[in-house]
């Protein structure tokens, strides 16, 4: 069991302690003397420690007040100088004066509580809280059974006071600030002591009150300490008579690991409901490291506890899997699964010196290799699929005309190629054929004389349609050329240069992208001239691999190298929980398509690129290669 380190008291609280001490004739400088220092100026007398004991034994208000205040000072500056195991009388007196005013309140004698009693109670509570920093004092206090019972009663009062104000006794409103101060001290005291309260049953009142407080409070510091207390209270003794190594082996390798000697069959862990778990998981959205650490500590203790589940009392592994399903809400809303699937990868990679994916050199554009010196231009315009037609036909003009053109025609930048049909010129269409194709595609619109479908607006007039072609394809050009025919006078021909019919209609996004995509002459020529010997339907993989290797070499040479020393406990905890989710749910559960879709929804748009830009994450084991199947 590690030693608990608590936060020091505030300056205002310390001034109150010093003022109380000075009023009784003992200066604050005494705090810094050793308890063996004698009292008096040049005259030997009893030690300070004996002076404190005698003051408490006297029962005189002024002496008791001095003794309690002085011990508060000492516990703040020299907490190791008071050993309760050696002087249990001091511990008993501190507990007595801490409980005294609250006992009156519980007995419905709130009117008898005075400000001085509460001040002494807070002095005693603060002293206990500070002394609990020492491991020996923790052990002594944890063995005082009446202390735990008293803490539960005081905690109940604080819950009623702060979260059920309609139950307040208004004669105590004047003590509200003191109660608030005492509430914080009490939770601080519980954090180290809760480590010793193990094997708690379902009816454990302390766990119930802390769980209730955690669902009611929005105070960050209270939440952090309460989550730590709850984590401690989930601790159980070894469920087996065998050694921990044997337990671990049996759990990892055996499907049904049956405990030999289960001591806790009715454990407090199963009083935790989905609503409690959802409250704690939602705290991960706050993006606070201290709060996140406390939540992770609780979740790991909850998921890895070897306390048997009531439905799987003979299998620790199945008990843990049942609690994992409960945490992720797989049988209900899956809200917790969605939050964890979103937040765990973010926390996993937070605060690491990672390379920005936006700074990676882009892959060169990939072109299909030229198959032949001849090309084939479709003689007819493709017809829109029904679903695409139903979208485009409802668009207003000229957006409908622009969208249709981009879906059914493609831009052409290279005109120095031959065609299979000598009568077809690549990258040229006549204006009349373009208009007729558009008119035929939306024949139902202009033939609908009675306006059967009022959502279909009239077609764009022919002249405006031709003028709109250049807006749809910026590279196109409306031209008038003269065609010479043997034995006949020259004829004028109205064409549009820079576009041609597609082989198949494409979607709106693809059409819009290609309409504004521009290739330089050198890049286009390089793409067309490479790979002429490749069979039809193949890509120049050699060129592709060369380009890919260039990018990979650049990443390996210039990318940031994350080492294991850069991984914080927060990163490691996020990895442990995420790996637990993927290993025990996504890789083992049946019909997890919806869960995979949730995981992909939150991470596929950023995580693969970040991992690709930082391959060191896979090298140090912070990211598993098997996770990519849920990202791509």
Automatic annotation (TrEMBL):
GO terms for cellular component: RSC-type complex. The gene is RSC9. Keywords: Chromatin regulator, Nucleus, Transcription, Transcription regulation. It comes from Scheffersomyces spartinae. The keyword Nucleotide-binding does not apply. This is Chromatin structure-remodeling complex protein rsc9. PANTHER family: AT-RICH INTERACTIVE DOMAIN-CONTAINING PROTEIN 2. It comes from the Eukaryota. The keyword Phosphoprotein does not apply. One of its GO terms (molecular function) is DNA binding. PROSITE patterns: RFX_DBD. One of its GO terms (biological process) is regulation of DNA-templated transcription. Residues 401-503 form the RFX-type winged-helix domain.
């Amino acid at each position: 069991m590690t030693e608990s380190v608590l936060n020091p008291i505030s300056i205002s609280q310390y001034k109150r302690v010093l003022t109380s001490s000075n009023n009784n004739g003992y200066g604050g400088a005494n705090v810094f003397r050793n308890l063996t220092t004698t009292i008096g100026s040049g005259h030997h007398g009893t030690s300070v420690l004996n002076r404190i004991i005698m003051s408490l034994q006297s029962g005189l208000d002024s002496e008791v007040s001095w003794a309690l205040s002085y011990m508060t000072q000492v516990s703040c500056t020299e907490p190791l100088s008071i050993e309760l195991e050696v002087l249990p009388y001091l511990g008993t007196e501190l507990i007595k004066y801490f409980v005294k005013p609250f006992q009156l309140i519980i007995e419905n004698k709130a009117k008898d509580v005075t400000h001085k009693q509460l001040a002494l109670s807070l002095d005693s509570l603060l002293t206990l809280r500070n002394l609990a920093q020492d491991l020996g004092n923790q052990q002594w206090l944890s063995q005082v059974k009446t202390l735990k019972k008293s803490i539960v009663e005081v905690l109940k009062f604080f819950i009623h006071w702060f979260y059920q104000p309609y139950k307040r006794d208004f004669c105590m409103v004047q003590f509200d600030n003191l109660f608030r101060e005492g509430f914080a001290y009490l939770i601080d005291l519980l954090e180290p002591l809760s480590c010793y309260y193990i094997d708690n049953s379902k009816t454990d009142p302390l766990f119930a009150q802390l769980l209730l407080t955690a669902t009611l409070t929005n105070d960050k510091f209270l939440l952090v300490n309460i989550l730590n207390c709850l984590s401690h209270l989930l601790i159980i003794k070894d469920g087996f008579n065998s050694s921990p190594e044997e337990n671990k082996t049996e759990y990892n390798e055996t499907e049904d690991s049956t405990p030999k000697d289960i001591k806790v069959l009715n454990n407090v862990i199963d009083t935790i409901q989905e609503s409690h778990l959802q409250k704690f998981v939602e705290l991960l959205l706050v993006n606070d490291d201290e709060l996140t650490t406390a939540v992770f500590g609780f979740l790991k203790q909850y998921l890895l506890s070897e306390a048997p589940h009531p439905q799987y009392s003979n299998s620790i592994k199945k008990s843990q899997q049942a609690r994992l399903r409960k945490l992720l809400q797989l049988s209900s809303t899956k809200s917790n699964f969605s939050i964890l699937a979103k937040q765990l990868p973010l926390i996993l990679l937070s605060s690491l010196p990672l390379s920005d994916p936006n700074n990676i050199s882009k892959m060169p554009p990939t072109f299909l290799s030229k198959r032949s010196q001849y090309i084939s231009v479709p003689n007819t315009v493709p017809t829109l699929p029904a679903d695409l037609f139903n979208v485009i036909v409802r668009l207003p003009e000229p957006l409908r005309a622009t969208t249709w053109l981009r879906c059914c025609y493609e831009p052409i930048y290279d005109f120095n190629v031959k065609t299979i049909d000598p009568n077809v010129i690549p990258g040229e269409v006549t204006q009349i054929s373009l208009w007729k194709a558009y008119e035929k595609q939306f024949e139902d619109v202009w033939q609908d004389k009675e306006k059967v479908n009022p959502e279909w607006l009239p077609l764009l007039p022919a002249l405006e349609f031709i003028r709109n072609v250049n807006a749809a394809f910026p590279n196109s050009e409306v031209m008038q050329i003269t065609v010479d025919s043997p034995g006949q006078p020259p004829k004028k021909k109205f064409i549009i240069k820079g576009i041609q019919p597609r082989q198949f209609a494409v979607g709106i996004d693809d059409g819009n992208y290609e309409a504004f995509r521009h290739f330089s002459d050198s890049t286009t020529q390089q793409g067309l001239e490479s790979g002429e010997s490749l069979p039809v339907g193949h890509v120049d993989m050699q060129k592709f691999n060369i380009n890919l290797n260039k990018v990979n070499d650049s990443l390996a040479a210039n990318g940031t190298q994350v080492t294991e020393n850069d991984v914080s406990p927060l990163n490691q905890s996020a990895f442990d929980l995420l790996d637990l989710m993927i290993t025990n749910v996504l890789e083992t559960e049946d019909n997890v398509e919806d869960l995979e879709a949730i995981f992909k929804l939150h991470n596929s748009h950023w995580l693969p690129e970040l991992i690709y830009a930082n391959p060191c994450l896979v090298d140090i084991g912070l990211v598993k290669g098997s996770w990519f199947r849920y990202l791509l």
